[in-house]
What does this fold into?
Amino acid sequence: MNTPGSSDGILEFWVDGTQYLSYTAYNVRGTATEGWKRIEIGVQADRQVFDPIDEERYWDDVVVSSVSVGP
It folds into this structure.
């Protein structure tokens, strides 16, 4: 998370010890002083009309953390 109102957050995406995404100087929450209340992973929309698409996905061991986890 970032300090409210500042672009000092970091967002990283790792899979099995390999980093696939990294954003620094990131403003995740704008000026809000509360943390995240909900995280949606894998939300898919029809790109023609932007309606949700019903589909199945399987996720395993999803972790949201402020410190490094894993190998």
In short: The beta strands are 9-15, 18-26. The mean pLDDT is 79.
